[in-house]
Amino acid sequence: MNFTYSALTPGQTVWALSPELLLLVTGLLILGLDAIQPQREEKQWLPYLALGGLAAACIAAITLWGCNTRVLAVLSCDAFSLMVKMVALVAVGLVVLLSEVYIKKHCALHQGEFYALLLFCVIPICLLGGATNLVLIFLAFDFLSITSYVLTGYLRDDPRSAEAGLKYFLYGAAISAVMLYGLSWIYGLSGSVDLGEIAAALQKSDESLQRLLLPALAFVIAGFAFKIAAFPFHQWAPDAYEGAPTPVTAFISVGPKVAGFAVIIRVLLVAFPPHGMVELAGNWRVALMAISILTMTFGNLVALWQSNIKRLLAYSSIAHAGYVLIGVVVASTQGIVAVLLYLAAYAFTNLGAFASVIAFSNQTGSDEIEDYAGLHKRAPALALALIICLLSLIGIPLTGGFVGKLLLFSSAIEEGLLALAVIGVLNSVISVSYYWKIMRAMYLDPPKVEDHVTISPALGVALGIAVAGIFVLGIFPNLLLPLLNAAAKVFF
């Protein structure tokens, strides 16, 4: 589908918004059908209805490929936004698969609300991928935050879940206020809430006005850093990851990151482009470089001391946010391609790891790394899938994580940021230590018990898709690179 902004008809507008509309309709349908069916009955159809809605939205996004237009003057329907939508939809589809057994076991009476909230979480991620208006960016961010808070505290009878949701909410509310202040400051200086108009207004102004934007930009970057769990705005992540239901932990480790990086790229490259505002762009690039270094270093060093696998993956997630920021700092076509590919690889890798964690904890009730002792004897396929995911997180060749890191580090070197690339490589070496703790427990330590760990069919499918995605991106990245190049060129 290919049309221009001036030629949009009401039907074309609806079609351009079809992924979001399909998610909304499916979520409301789940709530309605769940309400009219007696609670005592098993509702095995709920996750499959959610998957159907996600698949329909993904197909709608694919049919929009080639579109390059503005929708309702606040959204851009282009290759970048569509790629973000497809990554988010596939990731949440995997979350639905790995949620089936867990949610049925821990909150069987509230399954409908859970799957509806998951679908409602994807809507703001899709909107943030194409948002070109500061008001829409803030509203979509808050919508994503509120639904994430509810999901984090979803196990209402579990004190840890309630505590995690409360901490996430309090921290998020404070950061949202800071970000809103920064956005209003940008509007006050530029006289517009449209990213393109902000850039045009600033380029016509003198450099003194651009310097006045630095505090506002710092506030906005703080809001974005919170969403991707970057240092020093990461404090909510470890407690939220540990206390939230494990499928929700899997979601917040991927979904908000995809949204956060999508909006960081669009806001910084459209409103404050490096080629148009050299001094201002130089300032935000230096700030993000410092955040990137601190984030990856802090996440990796603190992860060394973790004994709970969910907290370990929380700090691992913080470190990976630091890696991805390298591509944003580079601010080139190759840098944005690296960001998108790394996010896709990270989604498969992290969701595969959490699928393994769910399969283990469902049967054993433990998230302690020491309890994974001898897992290769108790569940050989599960141990193998988890070790593949861990190898991808390290960045071992033939995995998607390796290709993602290779592109990130090489883009930094091409831009003359050799020191940043070297720090990224050193941090990847550090990460081997804490991932090795899990591998050693699974393959070298003797099992504490002899019972076998079984995997449900849905979890098995999720693990299979995740492992396949890791190897496809690691061995055949050229299948995706042309699409990622088209997405990156939107900004250049």
Attribute tags:
globular; 492 residues; disordered N terminus; 21 helices; single chain; mainly alpha; two-stranded antiparallel ribbon
Q: How are the SSEs ordered, and which strands pair?
A:
Blueprint: H1 10-16, H2 18-36, H3 46-63, E1 69-71, E2 75-77, H4 79-106, H5 111-130, H6 134-152, H7 159-190, H8 195-204, H9 207-212, H10 214-228, H11 236-243, H12 246-271, H13 278-303, H14 309-330, H15 333-364, H16 375-378, H17 380-394, H18 400-414, H19 418-443, H20 457-475, H21 481-488
Antiparallel strand pairs: 1-2
Helix pairs in contact: 2-3, 2-5, 3-4, 3-5, 4-5, 4-12, 4-15, 4-20, 4-21, 5-6, 5-12, 6-7, 6-12, 7-10, 7-11, 10-12, 11-12, 11-14, 12-14, 12-15, 13-14, 13-19, 14-15, 14-18, 14-19, 15-17, 15-18, 15-20, 15-21, 17-19, 17-20, 18-19, 18-20
What does this structure look like?
- The protein is an all-alpha fold.
- It has a domain at 274-492.
- 76% of the residues lie in helices and 1% in strands.
- Strands 1-2 form a two-stranded antiparallel sheet.
- A hairpin with a 3-residue loop joins strand 1 (69-71) and strand 2 (75-77).
- The longest helix has 32 residues, at 159-190.
- The two termini are 22 Å apart.
- The model is unreliable at 1-6 (pLDDT under 50).
SS element count, helices: 21
Kindly report how far apart the N and C termini lie.
22 Å
Q: How is the largest sheet built, in terms of strand order? A: 1-2
Mean pLDDT: 88
What's the total count of β strands?
2
Described by strand count, sense and barrel closure, the largest sheet is:
2 strands, antiparallel
Task: Decide which structural class fits the backbone.
Answer: mainly alpha
Strand content: under 5%
Could you name the ranges where pLDDT drops below 50 across 5 or more consecutive residues? 1-6
Write the element-wise H/E pattern from the N-terminal end onward.
HHHEEHHHHHHHHHHHHHHHHHH
Helix content: over 70%
